[in-house]
Write a structure and sequence with these properties.
Layout (H helix, E strand, L loop, with lengths): L13 E4 L2 E4 H53 L3 H14 L4 H36 L3 H12 L6 H16 L1
Antiparallel strand pairs: 1-2
Helix pairs in contact: 1-2, 1-3, 2-3, 3-4, 3-5, 4-5
Length: 171
């Protein structure tokens, strides 16, 4: 079936000039080029987004590692309350893996009992002071000994408990 009668003859959209196809073909090349430019732009944007995300994850991981190190240091110097706060911050980031995650979990399990035992040792020290003031030397000796023997008090607190114990023993 041909073109409808009475309509003007249509020209072919493809023309050959100097050995090159023109017309629709040229428009098709422009569309292909534009499509490639758009794809490259989108890909570059995605890569930039992934890179930014990777940098953010790396920063979080570095921060969590630093917090873990600080928390362990606080724990080792018997600053258990501070250790707990720092370790919980590291845990909130949820980026540690492997041995670091195991270390974090280990210290988080150990910190609350350490806080309780430190509190009990400090209470023993205070009870020893109260007993010493009241002249109850046997009770003071018992309480200062408990405080001085506690591995959960800081070194300066142990030193003070031993000094008070020496006072009690002198009397």
């Amino acid at each position: 079936m041909g073109p409808p009668t009475g309509s003007p003859p249509t020209e072919s959209p493809i023309v050959v000039r100097d050995g090159w196809l023109t017309g629709c073909f040229e428009r098709s090349l422009a569309v292909v080029f534009l499509h490639k430019v758009v794809c490259i732009t989108v890909l570059a944007g995605l890569l930039a987004g992934l890179t930014t995300s990777t940098f953010a994850q790396d920063a979080d991981t570095d921060q969590a590692k630093a917090l873990l190190k600080q928390g362990v240091s606080q724990f080792d110097t018997r600053n258990y309350q501070q250790a707990k706060a720092v370790l919980l911050k590291a845990a909130e980031l949820k980026v540690l893996t492997g041995d670091e995650k195991k270390t974090l979990d280990d210290y988080l399990v150990r910190v609350d009992p350490a806080i309780r035992k430190q509190r009990a040792a400090l209470e023993a020290y205070r009870a020893g002071e109260k007993a010493l003031k009241a002249g109850e030397l046997d009770e003071a000796k018992k309480q200062f000994t408990a405080a001085a023997d506690s591995p959960f008090l800081r070194q300066e607190e142990i030193k003070d408990a031993k000094a008070e114990l020496a006072v009690v023993n002198f009397k």
